[in-house]
Amino acid sequence: MEQKEKIKVQKVYWIEGIKDAGKSEWILRKKDELISEAEGWEQVYPDINGMYDRNTVKFILERDDQRIILNSGSDTHAIINAFKDFLEMQEEITEVYTAIRPCETNQRLHMWMKKALNDTLSIESEESIIIKKDGV
Predict the structure, then answer these.
(1) How many beta carbons lie within 10 A of that of residue 85, not counting itself?
(2) Which of 48, 60, 104, 122 counts the highest number of beta carbons within 10 A?
(3) Phi and psi, residue 27, nearest 5°
(4) What is the Cα–Cα distance from 113 to 48, expressed in whole angstroms?
(5) How far apart, in whole angstroms, are the C-alpha atoms of residue 94 and residue 46?
């Protein structure tokens, strides 16, 4: 069976924090910031009026020939595998913002997410954004 070519991605942002630290809130705020008039991104998935679970939601935003994926789910292996499957269905991605658990507090979830993205994407650069539970 032939392996699918990895999707080239300019940057992956790892939104890292323990359970209930605010990773999903950060993802939702980032999405709102990007679709503001100043940034000019358009939400194309899910439907802007659609219902979604804020703890596992995946967004696709587009502007010109750029495409951003935002993912809030990182709580289980099944959620991480669903995100990997979602990424594999995409043709082009410019940037990815994804929640991830810290290696220090949940090594398995951390490694599963890293592996899922590294198996699927050819990542040019990465940045970690640490979310503290107390907001600091």
Answers:
(1) 11
(2) 60
(3) -60, -45
(4) 26
(5) 18
User: Which two three-digit tokens encode residue 126?
Assistant: 């990465």
Structure confidence by residue, pLDDT tens digits, 59-117: 999 999 999 999 999 999 999 999 999 999 999 999 999 999 999 999 999 999 999 99
- C-alpha separations of 90 from 64, 95, 101 in Å: 16, 12, 24
* Token output for 15: 């939104």
Strands (E) located in the chain = 7-16, 42-45, 58-63, 66-71, 95-100, 121-130
Strands 42-45 and 66-71: unpaired
Q: How confident is the model at residue 136 (pLDDT cuts 50, 70, 90)?
A: very low
